[in-house]
Design a protein that fits this description.
Length: 205
């Protein structure tokens, strides 16, 4: 692609680094910004920089937050005896949109994937065990994507959690194998949370 401006080319190159954004889409986005008022573009840029510099991760559940402890973890209306384990913040948002879960979350920050060089030590697993150790947690729900990486992570976590006196369940498989939670419709995901089953039972299906 030939560019009439080096500044334009550099901007397109940066937008192209975003997931799912090709060069043509990046060019369309950059040209759109050029057609906006200068102060609007400055607000856009400032929001991105502010996000990167000031965003925090909840010290309890590892969810993205504006505070050191997120609103879900500090809410007195949430059931702290039930922890829903998810891959990332997108999954928290997807489950929250179903209005079917009133417990708290634990964000792993990824899934075990040897092919990508991601092992248990790279995830927020030790912090999960620390949360469960005091004995106040009664149930852990695995709400991970129905992929090979998701199942590998669940299998590993189940082995680590077996020594604790807690119920271990997984969301019902109304989700096709290979499906990721963020793309599942809210009704299906909501039912999967509400009709969760003991993890041991899911292995025989």
């Amino acid at each position: 692609m030939n560019f009439s401006s080096k500044l334009l080319e550099n901007a397109v190159a940066e937008f192209s680094k975003l997931p799912g954004v090709g060069q043509k889409t990046a060019l369309r986005l950059v040209l759109h910004l050029l057609n906006q008022e200068k102060d609007e573009v400055e607000r856009f840029g400032s929001a991105i920089v502010k996000l990167r510099n000031e965003i925090l991760f909840c010290k309890v559940c590892n969810n993205i937050s504006d505070q050191h402890t997120c609103e879900i973890c500090t809410s007195h209306k949430r059931d702290r005896s039930t922890i829903c384990i998810v891959e990332d913040t997108r999954d928290v948002m997807a489950i929250e949109n179903t209005n079917q879960f009133n417990g708290v979350y634990h964000v792993l920050g990824g899934l075990i994937s040897p092919m990508d060089g991601i092992g248990p030590a790279d995830l927020e697993i030790d912090s999960l065990l620390t949360r469960i150790a005091p004995g106040e947690v009664k149930e852990v729900i695995f709400a991970l994507s129905a992929t090979m990486e998701g199942d590998t992570t669940i299998f590993y976590l189940n082995k680590r959690l077996k020594d604790f006196n807690i119920n271990i369940s997984t969301i019902a498989r109304g989700i096709a194998f290979g499906g990721e939670l963020e793309y599942v419709d809210e009704i299906t995901l909501g039912r999967s949370i509400a009709t969760r089953v003991p993890y041991e039972n899911s292995l025989s299906r």
